[in-house]
Design goal:
This protein has 274 residues and is α/β, with parallel strands linked by helices. It has one domain: TIM Barrel (Alpha-Beta Barrel), CATH 3.20.20. An eight-stranded mixed β-barrel has the order 2-3-5-6-7-8-9-10, surrounded by five helices. Helix 5 runs parallel beside helix 6.
Length: 274
């Protein structure tokens, strides 16, 4: 009987060879998620590769302990357990764009991250030729409520290569539209979204004037304190050509602003009193 069970399991395993799909739920990850984590449970200061490394002056990304990735359909299937074991502490996953585009890998990526115990949030790529309310409703339609998720993200940046929308609204208009989107998502999910942006967009629009909003800033050739003088940030995207175990090809890599203990509290994973 034991031999028969072994053979059946072996055949079932071989039948899946060559296919990469979302891993089954990890009982240990589920227990940790329910009980909370301590800083000792995290893989900190990971040494990821980079296909086009930058020679950092001043404080380098590697000196930050908590790293994570942001992904879309272009990353394909991901080995989430391997990525987590290598030091991926969070993932922001593309969900929607504009008012009618949904990333076809969002559900798989979300399921894979959750099963492996990787904290996740979803992001929306903003389209300047549609009203903010319409785009917020589209995001809400595609991203389910999940009390364990990280705050979601509004990605706002200029789109000079878009085939359909290259307009550049004035800063006041941009800020008003961003506020509408953030308010609608906060009302629906119970958490105010983070705002992701780039150096030129930040400079041109004064988007940092939004109150009560945390920022995720892109800066691949210098520390944010140099490229965004005086700005306060929660996440820093430091490369778009990262190489991370479990992810095929290049991927964006980010750091969290502070210590593992602060990260666990910020992300809602900390165990009270530990």
């Amino acid at each position: 009987m034991r031999l028969l069970i072994f053979c059946v399991c072996l055949v079932a395993g071989l039948a899946g060879c060559g296919q990469r799909s979302s891993p089954p739920p990890d009982p240990l990850a589920a227990e940790q998620a329910a009980a909370g984590l301590s800083a000792a449970d995290l893989v900190t200061y990971p040494k990821f590769g980079d296909a086009d490394p930058h020679s950092w002056k001043g404080r380098a990304p590697r000196t930050y302990p908590v790293h994570g990735i942001d992904i879309s359909r272009w990353q394909g299937d991901i080995d989430w357990r391997r990525a987590k074991a290598s030091g991926v502490s969070f993932a922001f996953i593309k969900a929607t764009e504009g008012g009618d585009l949904a990333d076809p890998k969002f559900r798989d990526h979300r399921a894979g991250a959750k099963a492996a115990g990787v904290p996740w949030g979803a992001y929306h790529y903003y389209y300047f030729c549609r009203p903010a309310e319409e785009q917020a409703r589209w995001f809400i339609r595609n991203v389910p409520r999940d009390s364990a998720s990280l705050p979601h993200v509004l990605d706002m940046e200029w789109t000079p290569y878009s085939r359909t929308c290259r307009i550049r609204p004035e800063g006041a208009k941009v800020r008003a539209e961003a506020d509408k989107f953030l308010d609608m998502l906060e009302a629906h999910y119970g958490k105010r979204p983070i705002l992701y942006t780039t150096v030129d967009f930040f400079r041109d629009t004064g988007i940092d004037r939004l109150r009560g909003t945390e920022f995720w800033l892109r800066s691949v050739a210098g520390h944010p304190r140099k490229t965004y003088p005086g700005a306060f940030w929660t996440f820093w995207q430091y490369t778009g050509t990262g190489l991370v175990p479990g992810v095929d090809g290049k991927v964006d890599i980010n750091v969290f602003r502070s210590s593992p203990e602060v990260w666990l509290r910020w992300s809602g994973q900390a165990v009270p009193g530990r």
